[in-house]
Amino acid sequence: MGADLESDVLPVVVREAARRCRTTTSVLMLAITTALVRCVCPGPLHRLDVMQGNRTTPGLMGSVTTLNQVVHTVTDLRADSFADLLARAGRTMADARAHARYDSRAVAEVVRARGGVLEPGTQFNDMWSTLPRSRATAEPDPAASELTWPATSEAERMVLYFDVRGTPERMRLGLMADTAVLPREEIGAFLLAFERVAVELADGDVPLERIGELFAESRARVDR
């Protein structure tokens, strides 16, 4: 099942939070995603695939070529703070850039050495961060955020497929999930909590316990 969240607030707060944390918007969003994955998936290790390729300019964002790769990584969900997850996300994105064209035989050997096939995990695809900055000056309205439920798909064998697109002024988060792992209300809660975490990060540090609370509160909103 899939859900989309369109938000005018996210482009503003994600950039503010990234600037405050001295990182990139893509790394920040990956760290938020990982923090929320901790709320719904058992640890300590979790498969994380990062889409990395040649879509590095706005003009190429809609292209699909043989250079686009799913970079397989494994992330450790154990952390004492959001700063830990942020540093880990930075290393993951750096590795994805360095090894976008991986050797499938080497991947198979790593999996064999770990004792079996990795369970389905999360796929992260950020196609928003390369967009130019918005020139809008009006204060965005949080009430304008819209949660919708598009058609289901079986295209990805992942627990979660997280996609970030949109325009400079309005971000669209898309989340596809296996409902055997993540029920409908938690799919919606994941997206709503993502926005709320980003809003709070723009103003200051957010403890991991607070992120769990925001997820629980967001789930209650979807239940209604």
Strand fraction equals 15-25%
- Major sheet: 7 strands, mixed
Strand order of the largest sheet: 3-2-4-6-7-1-5
End-to-end CA span: 19 Å
Calculate Rg over CA atoms: 17 Å
Sketch the topology as an H/E string, one letter per element.
EHHEEHHEEEEHH
Helix content: 40-55%
Task: Return the structural class.
Answer: alpha/beta
Strand tally:
7
Backbone shape: globular
Q: How would you describe the oligomerization state of the chains in this entry?
A: single chain
- Average pLDDT, rounded to a whole number, is 82
Helix tally? Answer: 6
Low-confidence stretches: none
Question: How would you describe this protein?
Answer:
The protein is α/β, with parallel strands linked by helices and 224 residues long. It is 41% helix and 20% strand. The chain is built from six helices and seven strands. It has helices spanning 9-21, 25-40, 82-98, 104-113, 184-203, 208-223, and strands spanning 2-7, 45-52, 69-76, 122-126, 146-148, 160-166, 171-177. It has a seven-stranded mixed sheet. The mean pLDDT is 82.
